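QUALITY CONTROL LOG
STEP: pairwise intake check
CHECKER ROLE: data steward
CRITERIA: each record must contain a sequence immediately followed by its structure tokens, with no blank fields

ENTRY 1 OF 2
RESULT FIELD BELOW
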Amino acid sequence: EEVENVDIHFEPVVKLQDVEVKTHEEDETPIFKMRSKLFRFDMENKEWKERGTGDVKLLEHKESGKVRLLMRRDKTLKVCANHYITEDMVLSPNVGSDRSWVWNVAADLVEDEAERQMLAIRFGSSDKANEFKEAFEKARNTNKALAAGEQPEKKAETKAEEKAEDKAEAKTDDKAEEKAAEEPKEEEKKD
């Protein structure tokens, strides 16, 4: 029996062009990202309904400095939470769980519609939930300061960098002063 080695090639009927997809996250820097599950409270049926599982992100706009919460579902990447963190948003513990938080949103922009929602978010552990709360509170304070026309509190990394620069400048100044003090002594010795 003879087996033929046939190289079959079919040309595509339609040629597809590469499409640039915009996520609208291009002008933002992620300051927090963690896997979680999001729920919304259905007022009609008085029950919690799952909105999706995925990575919750706090994104800081590069120009305005405002921080928003964005969460997309795994695989489909469909938005399940999208809102700015305002000063009236307060995280309260969910009854019976140390790893979830509940808060009210005046305008959650999901599917291009602003809706008033009560949201709950659950994490894998209480440590992760507390990390989220710290980042959420910090973002709320940042947005509150921006709304009041103040400069938000600088990031810890930026503060540390500034301290290091100040120390380096101080050392340089000290060395320059020592050198200046030594120069007249050397001139006195020559005379």
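ENTRY 2 OF 2
RESULT FIELD BELOW
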Amino acid sequence: MDENPVILVTAGYDHTIRMWDALKSTCTRTIPYTTESQINRMALSSNKHYLAVAGNPSVSLYDVFSASDLPVMKLDGHTANVTAVEFTLDQKYLATCSEDCTIRLWEIHTGSGKYELKNGAIVNDIAIHPDMRQELIVSCDQEGMIRVWRWRRREVLCQVEPQPNVAVRSVAVSPNGQLVVAGNNLGQIFVY
């Protein structure tokens, strides 16, 4: 595989992960996803070296440039569907969240679960603050809460419920870390 293609990764109900050279519109690699689980979410590390694939109840980590179709690591610890995965910009950690009401941060090089945050409700999505010195992660959940966590201390710094009892499905942090954007089940978008 070319060292610097623009990579697009797709997956479907056929349990096949496909990597594409987006500029050439060509499939450069297929990987059979051999677990019985569906693929819930995927994330590509910023250096395009690792692909994290979230299933039920684990995450498989693939080396994009390896010839092997096997994951280089499997992250076990969640007890239900993993709903989101995101790499830190420095690629030291992978953050995951799950229907088991937890958020976990994994050390990528060892595969060890370093931090566990207990949310109290099914976690739908997460976003990591771009400045790792801040040690912040934003989550949204099935009960409609958006929380900002200081992950190393395992504490909630602030939380907001945009619309009572309406699940918040998606959350993102702006590249400069100044804004949080979230969307709920009613199609409403909130900017903080």
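INTAKE CHECK: passed for both entries
DESCRIPTIVE NOTE, ENTRY 2: The mean pLDDT is 94.
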